Predict the 3D structure of the following.
Amino acid sequence: IEPQASMPDIFLWLMSGAKRLGYTRIPASSVLFSHNEAAKGPLSGVFSTFTLVNPDDETGFDLGGVVRCALWFGREDEADHWWQYQQSHLSLTVYAESYENQIISAPGSGKWTQKGILMTRPAFSDADGRLALEKEAFTAPYGWNFAGDWIVEPDPSVQYEADAGHSQFNEEVFEVQVRIPGGTWIQAPANPWQDVRGDPATTRDEITCPQGWAWADVWTYDLQRAVDGEGWEYTVQSGFMSWSPQEKLYHLVRRRRWVRERRLRERIIKDTQSSEGWEYAPLFNLQFHAIERKIDLVRRRRWRRPMTATREGLPPTPTLSVKSGDGKDAITQYACPRMYVVSKSQHVYQLRAHLYQARDLEAGDKSGFSDPYAVVCFYNATQQTEKLSATLCPTWDQTLIFDNVKLADPLPHTNQNPPQAVVEIYDWDARGAPEFLGRVFCSPTVIDPSQGYEPVGLKWFKLEKGNIRQGELLASFELFLKDNAELPEMPPTRGSNYMVPFKVRPVLQKTRVEVICWGLRNMSTYELQSVSRPTIEFECGGQRIVSAKMTNLQANPNFDKPHLTFDVQNPRSLFYLLHLSIVELDQEGPAATSIVEHISSTLRQHSASTSSLQHRQDKAPPDSLEAFGLTDPNGFASTSSNGGSASSSTLQHHY
């Protein structure tokens, strides 16, 4: 089969209700099936990782999500071949499904009924409450038979709260106050405590710390937003989503966000569902949860009845018919049942993400540096490294461990195509949201400990910010098969964090960096002003040194003391060498300093051993630069942010 130019692409959408959260566009030729391996698409029937784009993001940096799925596109008469041979480890399970709905008769009474003002849904309906689905009205479709009776089976997604997969989590609740024109602020009589959407929420003092978690702080109101000095933001009326940090006479509603951090102490696998399988919510159009709260007025539970196919192979697509009414008023409606793919084999893994360092990151602060930290997402869990201050080449030296990761693929499939880990680098800011610096997708190395263990070495991964490459990450990822196998010993610890194992991390040695900072040339204006009193700051491996300040660039463009030296712990291997960050500052006044330009350069081309340097000095003329261990002073130059050229000196470092 040869794909035609008119064959449409495949769009994969991530939905939440009627809202589109993310999408990806997949060429049909990449999943097209053919018996000829040379003509078959590379992703046909193969579980792959697809990156979703956020349709509401204008910057192109936001990630709409990551989906791991298998797509197959071919003729209908070849569908059995795909199901029996390519996906033989999967089984198709189909259920007839109906939700039983109830409302509370009176708040606090504990009695539930199916009659009342709040009962806006049929007694039995679909998940959205739009279609009446009585259990007795279902008829099995062609090619399928009912297997067993109706059973209560809650939706597994309800068991996952907002903190699922996190080791740190911020509880939040909004305090709401109202007033009449010209009056004073009082607590809102209807819903004094709300969530971010304005729905009723549990009061601040009644929010408890879940089992396995511990509070890390006390309740404080959030000032890291567009709010006034007491954390309030103002609006005209309830439901009006435009908030202002400044109070006006016409503002009648205000709110402030209270936050409290809690940290995971012990992962506890617990059953959060009630014995009867009910899910609760304040109203039917709000989000349901497993644990009943005081503000909940409605509840529902899911009834399911399994169906089995009457023939082997890939069965026909089922369509359930539901009859309602009697006689001439009888109406037949059709509903598509829930279809699930269940794996016949499941294995437990442990991922060890060794994040050693990054280099050549983007400067996120006005100081010319960043306060970077890394966030690693793998499967359904997320962890982050510690935050480092004022550096473009951070050395985290940290291992993040994702334990008890359950993958449904057979072992050969996982070994050939494991799930990818997503690493994102952010710049932490004291006020406002963290700034995105770059992202990379990393494929882990699958290791079976029973077959022996050889540490996976670190490698450089290119970070990307949109379509622009921005820095590199030095890391390695090991995915251990944990099924009844003894794993290698845990990495050493530093405080509460795991370090990169000694067999994985590079060998360090003391390195001296020598810089001859001659001066600046061809500097044009910066922000419509002339650069007059510049200074140069050099940073490498957390160590920094600052040159002398020029008195007047136009009168004398050279520095008084050009020779600068500092020591840093650098890897012995040239492959892992750190980058040198160079920042040009201009002092505009007694306390005002601006960043004119910053660049980053590798030390590999400037490195020399002490023995080779001594040999070169012995042969050099006494008045030459080589006699001092230096090379051409025009060794590196960069284009400054104002369009001019800033000529920096060559550096030489010795082992």
In short: Residues 623-655 have pLDDT under 50 and may be disordered. DSSP finds three helices and 43 strands in the chain. The longest helix spans residues 610-619. The helical segments are 79-86, 411-416, 610-619.
